[in-house]
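User: Can you predict the 3D structure for this chain?
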Amino acid sequence: MNVVDREPAGTSIVSVGVSMSADADSAVAEAASQLPQQGICFVLVFVPETLDPDAVASGLGKHLPQTLAFGCSTGGQITPDGYADNALLLVAFPREHFRCSSMLMAPLKPLSIEDTAIAAKTLAHRFQTTAGWRRFAITIADGLSKQEDTLIAALEAGLGEIPVFGGSAGNGLSFDVTHVLHGGQFHQNAALLIIVETDLLFQGVEFDHFAPTDRQLVVTEARPEDRIVSEINGAVAAEEYARLIGYEVADLSPRVFAENPVLVRNLDNWHVRAIQEVLDDGALTFLSAIENGLVLTLGQGQDIIATMDSALDVAGPRGEVPHFVLGFDCVLRRLEIEQKQLGTEASAVLRNRRVLGFNTYGEQHGGVHVNQTFVGIAFFSSGHRIDL
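Assistant: Here is the predicted structure, written as structure tokens:
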């Protein structure tokens, strides 16, 4: 199927295949049948937790044997109809408008900043440029590796002016194992980098829906390598966090964490550092980097639907709507939306704004790994006419 335009600004650039089948081979066959037979540069593959990744990889080799495929397991999918949980989503990027070069980084942990930066720089240098085309990079990492902060810093250093957008692979809300697709196989403890060249105009999109409050939390004891905070404000971390938000420790849950995030200030910007879970000793595990002495600020949620619709209201140089937006949307945002029973409204926004992508365990952009944030790339025509 092709994405339907909100207004007659042009046809969709990418093609999309979707299947809700519970059988991996049948799902791949159905989704692949919706894609063009020729002219594909690469396909992004977003896998629901209901399908076995290895079986999906086998199906891709069978039904799309000559097609480059990249992707991951996900915390949810963003299809042409909006949010989904059980959809295999294939997004095909045509050779007419895209070229790419890629590499797999495995094992991801431990990760050398210097080696990763050099490898990314080498990949970009060896990827021959096309006159008049522009470049961006996509990275997808094992969402449980705890290496995304280091990874995005290394990629930004190696790629220089090439903007990097990405998301951490997920697996529903299980937080047990995640997979990254490259070279016909799904990998754990790995990340992929795709440098993409296009003749289209594009622009980044990044937003969350939180504003800082006046309540602060100082990390007074932590294990940064494990993203574990044992003490906040000199007290047991879970107890102090619960006290500040007006909950009992026993009531802390992913829903509570999603609605009561902590923020970190970076110059004039605020970024979410999401809490993952409470450990038996009262420590808190995080989904982004933490360190001793870090000052955290409790965030207060704004209208999540209005914020989403406004932030996705992006326009091209002639005021045109995007052909589509490739989106990396945090699974904790999705969780909050579902808890507030706003899924129908959110899906309508995503559908109308022509977003395709997946729900992540973290997002990367601008050299930073963040949580509870939407990161995306909006694509527009480059001046040539796109016939209806």
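The first strand starts at residue 15 and ends at 19. The domain at 210-300 is CATH 2.40.30 (Elongation Factor Tu (Ef-tu); domain 3).
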